[in-house]
Amino acid sequence: MKLSKKYLAHVVFESNDPASKTFDIALLAIIFGSIIVAVLDSVQSLHEAYGRWFYLLELGFTFLFTIEYILRVWLTSRTLKYVTSFYGIIDLLAILPVYLSFFIANTQLLSVIRALRLLRVIRIMKLGRYLAEADFLRESLKASATKIQLFLFTVLTIVLVMGTLMFVIEGPSSGFTSIPVAMYWAIVTLTTVGFGDITPVTPLGQLMASLIMLLGYAIIAVPTGIVSSEMARRRKPEHFEKLKSCTFCSFERIEEGDKFCRRCGNEVN
Asked: Is residue 39 a contact partner of residue 58, using CB atoms and an 8 Å limit?
């Protein structure tokens, strides 16, 4: 049976029938396989024993991903929109590392970025309600962006002031060789990470460090509070139990009963 371009587009971009679901599940299996190979190849003993096999497997996976990427570019009616979309960029990054390995050693290990392609499991497993929750969280974060930016600017100001003070108080003899180094220490201390590679030795410096630690505990909950209040203020969207995908622009929020895509306006099959 001759496969039409329209049918192939349905199989590649959709996930609501056996053919397209089989394609997506096979794709996920290949993604898992390529990630496992990349992880195992990073183990020195396994690389020495099976490095050639790992490399051949990686070439095979990359060939399959390349064919899939070409198919998606060919089948979509809006090539530029797909190529520059989130999934389009991830699909391209999934194959680039191996081709770069021909010129730059070990870049094939960067192929673990293919793990991001596992986000497609949302469509395959019919987790539309989680997609709706993700959109709700994204919109809340977007609405909180200005407040978060102001908060980060405040934190940056605190880091600059505290770092400069510690540079003056401690000096190069204690490891605070410059204001940028002192700012690095202030960030590590303010976030309560505390690597311990640079520590104040004078009583005044230790007092300043203690104040910064306490300040870190005081402000660490601010971003959470900002986003939480915005989420409480916004109306929670209804869950989408059954979603379809547009075969033209890959929009994945087409509800059951929609006749046209809400993004590109093309007719939904």
From this structure: no
